[in-house]
Amino acid sequence: MQGMKERLLIIAGLFLILSVSVFPVSAATDPASCPGCGMVWKDTCIPFERNNETAYDEELLASFAPIAANQTPVADFSNRSWSGAFLAAHNLFKERYAYTQWRSVNWDALYQNFAPAIADAEKKQDKAAYYRALRGYLFAIPDGHVDILSTTGDFGAKYADIGGSYGFAVSRLDSGKVIVSYVANGSAAEKAGIRPGDEVTAWNGREIHDAINATPFIWAVKKPSTAEGILLHKQRFLTRAPVGSPATVAIAGMSDSHPRIVNLTASDDGYDTLKRTTTFLGKQINDVGVERSWADIQPQISNDTVTYRMLPNEYAYIAIYGESYDVYQPFKSAMLSAIANKTPGIVIDLRYNSGGDDNIASCFAGWFVDKPVFYEYATKYDPGSRQFTVVSEAWTQPRPNGYHGPVAVLVSPDTISSGEGVPMVFANSGTGKIISWYGTNGAFGMNTVEAAMPLGQYLFFPDGASLDKNGVIQVDSNAALEGGVAPQIRVPINEDTVARSMAGEDVQLTYALKWLDDQQKPQKPQKPATPAQPASPGIAIIVLTLGLLVLIAGRK
Questions:
Q1: What is the DSSP letter of 451?
Q2: pLDDT, tens digit, 9 for 90 and up, residues 214-263
Q3: Which residue, 466, 341, 331, is CA-closest to 393?
Q4: What pairs with residue 394 in β-bridges?
Q5: Would you say 189 and 167 are in contact if contact means Cβ atoms under 8 Å apart?
Q6: What's the CA dihedral at 348, 223, 507, 514 to 10 degrees?
Q7: How confident is the model at residue 528 (pLDDT cuts 50, 70, 90)?
Q8: What pTM, to 2 d.p., does this model score?
Q9: Structural domains in the chain plus CATH codes
Q10: Of 506, 467, 275, nearest to 374 (Cα)?
Q11: Integer angstrom CA distances of residue 443 from 28, 417, 438, 469, 552
């Protein structure tokens, strides 16, 4: 256990360095454009193109210089009482969390809400209740980066809460209708006559939308940050409960004139209904019922760092699962192969991208843009000044051998942190199209391990933010739960697309391929404008003068 703790603290130190998103000096650096910054990167591909990770790590350390003297190690509250550690961690959050105003976090109310649960768990020495209360506190902050990593498990809390299933799952359609999307073979739901496509109108006496909204989602593995991401997971967890719990469900089949009431009891299904509702990731995986979420989910999707394959009509498919240094060369190789093959279109799949290094995300985007795009100002909390200080500036530069054909980008609420960087650049530059059911997670800040807690728990939160060129927080969801990068083409969620996805079709990919096909069609010629009469010299001078005034007014 001690070895695991020491390893996590070492990892925390690396997170502290990497999460700042600061960059090494190069010929492309222009410190004058960001006074006081540790680094200014005019081309974020430089450290990855030179393929020397050791040099990059050393430069990251050196770039931390402007606020390094005031930085503190990861807070260790692990030897305190549960209540004492919770209070200390709460005060740390209150001081250093980067989005208190942005998300309108009421720290005093949060503490008053959860401190009694921590105290009661401590009094009873109920480890599961302690863990559940910590998780509840973190999930009350709508930020996918505010999270917990346990080296000792959840003490049975998850199974106690959601180990039971009613044998079916539901989906909320774009129309607002809630339908049965999956029924397990041989389940009590199937025996009761519940069928896929049936409408669910009430749950335990509550109107169905009210019931979904009241459903806890604290066991979501990739914690959602936006309203739509939260709603997705609430509907996934609606049909979960402690084993043995009864439920009364109002079901309206296609031939029913009125809803009928079905009584069910939750039974252990090995988290089957949760596996069946991960089609927003493009396939069905076990994302909740695993012991080690950080290690056991990715292999179900791919063992690659980057997946590259050819699709119908010679389109290239490139899936990126994270932004670590070793991802760049496989990505570059995939891009060069696609370009050499003269692919008429590319699908970039980021639906299960856990993020990592902002620089590499910015660099990835550089393979597709045709002009420089501002990426971010990165801030970091400085304990000395007690301010959030801008430490870096980054730009996405076009690669000299980049791709400029049509590109479809697939995202999901599991697209989090720097995984949201490529979609952000696409949205800001007008490059390609983002095509998906849902937008990205909406957690784009500079995340790191912040506190070690009793019973082997480690708390994360962002103590820095990503700012746009106007110095405004970007991508992170706000107090209204609006944020992330939204699809520019939303794949409809209706009876047809739900049924197809449950049957195994990657519906989002189907829509992306259809869009790529449409880009291959000849564009209808524009009707030529009627030639205007030549303007008199006086009119031309007036127009030119007005144009100059507009240009001058537009300068910053």
A1: E
A2: 999 999 999 999 999 999 999 999 999 999 999 999 999 877 778 999 99
A3: 466
A4: 41, 376
A5: yes
A6: -40
A7: low
A8: 0.89
A9: 159-281 (2.30.42.10)
A10: 467
A11: 29, 5, 15, 18, 37
